[in-house]
Amino acid sequence: MSPALFSPTKFSSKKGKFVSRLTGRNQHYSRENSMLMSDDDMSQRESIAGSDIFSQDGSRIIVPYGGEGSMYGSMYLPEDDLEEEDVAIDDEQLGPEVDSFARHVDMCRRNPGEDADEAAIELINGFHKDTFDHYQDALRRKETYLGEDNDFILEVLTETDFYKMEGETWDLVSRLVPGRSVDPAATHPSRDVADYESNEILRRQLLKESAVFRELNIIRDWLRSIAPTPAIPTEGAEDEEAMASGHMYTLNALKTYKQENMDPTEFVRKGPGARFEYPERGIPAPDDQSRLINTEMDPDGPLRQERGVAVGDNYYDSTFYRVLWAYIRKGDFKRAAEWCRKCDQAWRAPVVLGGRDGMDWLIDEEIAEDAMYDASQDQGPSGNRRRQLWRRSCYALAKRPSKDPGDMWEKAAYGLLAGDIETAAPACNDWHDHIYTQVNALIEAHYERFLRENGRVPNTLLNIPIPDAVATLGNKNVMAKIIDNLSRPEDHRFTDSMQKTALRAVQGAVISNRIPKLVNIFADQLRQFRQDPGYEPEKDTNTPVDCTDWKLLRVITHIVIVLQQLGQWPEQGPDADAAQEVIAGYIRMLAAAEKYKIIPLYAARLTRDRCVEVMGEVLLHVINENTRDDMVRSFRSYGLDIRATLRRTMENAFIQTEPFYKYDELPIQVLSEFSLPWQDRRKVQPEDEKLVRTAEWMLMVDEMKDDLLSAGVMMFKRFYLTGRLDAARTLVERIPSQHLVPGDLDDNDDLSEEAKTTASVYIEYELLIDGLEALDSWSKLLAACTAAKREGGLAGVRRGKFKDELQTSYEVAQAKLGLLVNSWLVQCNNHADAEQVKHIRNTYVPDITMALHGVHLAAGHHLNKSHYSRCLDLAVLVAKPSSGVAETFVATGRMAKYVDELANVSLMCLQAAKGVTLEAVLVKPGQEATVAIWNVKPVPKPGDGDDSMHA
């Protein structure tokens, strides 16, 4: 089964601005009134499909628009106003990027001659740029808004966060995904590195040879680029002064202690060489006499004395190390060094900058010519030639025991420099920080191992402890382990909005190279959501993604398109099926928002059968004529199979509307409605309109006359079997047989013999509406004539020229109704659907006969009494076995009533016989008129002479 993913239910067109995105995604739907449910949730009543026939043994035969064997059924929901359908999803829910993304996809499609990888990169860059533009727009709205609407503020903040994170996601895709189809070892052969050359040469060689090391560096560079700029306190002048003055409270305490405890005479006696000696144990803190502070303020003083600083300097330490850690986390080592100098800790600047391997412009020419390395011939040697010793020193500093405020940030800063996870993790603030810490540690571990393999780590350093993240995390599927470990449902460290959590899941899938797994999860949700109306993806604890988050659906769909463009997505198998499901879900979402013009662009990325299935659902909801024209042109432009799609669309229309067409309790006199005023009749129902509207699609394709004729016959059967005469009238008005079979039927050479047979049946069904129209015109004119006679007598009738008009109307009505009584559907009695045809004849032929009887009777009363005899002539036709009319009266139990009507008209004929001729000849003056039906003359039987009689 494949019910539609979008709901045609009514949504208020005046929604509160931005409020819709704040609610749970599934709450945008009315599940009870949604096409998201499957046939299993729909009550399947005994019904007539209009698309089925029965064989002689009673078994059902499917022809050709589905039935119970079709896989494509869903429940159609009545719509109150077909002219003004409200969309299920509005533009505010989708965002403007839907159209802009489609433009980029279309441009990529229009340039098939370009290199596939380059086209994919342009596609990603286009997505990234558009998302950044939307982020900037949301940011401007947030910054310029001066109102007090909390919902608006919250929505703009949510929108800004989403676009920011989506832009980061596309940046990650652009950096990481295109290179995955390239084998680094094949494109960059290794070379021997001389002993005198820098380790940087080896690092770059490892980048070229190892796909793992390359991806880790790309991920780290990306994480650095999205890290926020450190928040430096600038709320007041004292903040900047405190940071520039260093340990101000400790220095003041030392100064005060010196002033209070020094001997001035001793300084005079000793002269310039005098030096004040602080107690070796330290001095009491000015704010806590029981606590001792260090007295030596050189960089190693606190560590050597194992003493802390004054409590007042805790703010300085905490702020300094926190900002320093943030600069290192962002990879901005230059600004980190400047921060050290600004805060009167210039000695730390070389430590921060020690992570760059040493190089010499004259020796390491390969590096010097690299624009990424800021070296020049005038600069001379630069960087750290003892980087592995530096790293071990940083690790030792990170591991030293201390509990002073600010030490956590100091240890974390040194931990990042050393590539240690344990000491850096406590300072991590969010999901990206944790990933950075572990990726950074892996890079250092891989580099260390590579240097060891090449004999670049001195033996003297091997005994000094150093963290090895490869040994800790392993070297297989390591990024998947990291992502999964940070994405456990019970882990509440990163509680955030659903959209941000979902985008983290996308980023995690990209980082761990498990996009197919994410797409499969999304596809499973789409399937479950369409099959089970109670399924709520946002409550599925197995994954943070939600298939009804339209922005997320757009992101995942276009990531799939990028991978397809790069040739990194399989064309067959489960992953290919999942991609088809996701793209199909995106198409249904576009249809729910009435974004019909861009739908064929994405439909072209589906397989032929899947495209037919999905578009067969979508086209059911396209009403606007201009949109239909655009869709047909797009189908041809994208090479889609429009004929198969329209066949599926018609099939879906028949299946979805089937439960509405029951004829078990059809009233006997269905034609009685035609005597009612137009406003009192049963209106065309939504399911009727849906069928006719769907059939109109085929009028736009010249090659589909055969299909349209078959569909039209099935619709006629449904309408007639359920007494929906105005629906049948609508079909005749909008798809008249002249449009399909102009002129004589035999002259339509473009139709097959089978189609000509179907066309003849279509015309037969159309005759009933023609006859009823004539009957309707007769009834209206007769009513007007009766009113005129009541007001002005016969003279009034003559003055109104009603008699001539009534005569003309009578001739038309009796001709068309007579044709129906005489031969309507008789030729179809031998067709495969004979049982349904028989039911239709039993339903309408008695009414048509009685109606024609009434026309003759009224004509005898208003025009000429000779018309009374036509009632008896009609009775002769009814009685003829070959006409089959009498059988319809017997089958419906109405023969007795018809006989009563004949008895009444017989008396009228006898009363009118004196002086009246009922023959179409002139009676000579003085000749007695006779009633022709009583002129019994013998008719000889073959071989018997004159024993037979005839009237």
Automatic annotation (TrEMBL):
GO molecular function: structural constituent of nuclear pore
One family name in Pfam for this protein: Nup84_Nup100
Annotated Gene Ontology cellular component terms: nuclear membrane; nuclear pore outer ring
InterPro entries given in the database record: Nup84/Nup107
Record keywords, A-Z: Membrane, mRNA transport, Nuclear pore complex, Nucleus, Protein transport, Translocation, Transport
Compartments where found: Nucleus, Nuclear pore complex; Nucleus membrane
Function description: Functions as a component of the nuclear pore complex (NPC).
UniProt name for this protein: Nuclear pore complex protein
UniProt organism field: Orbilia brochopaga
Gene name of this polypeptide: NUP84
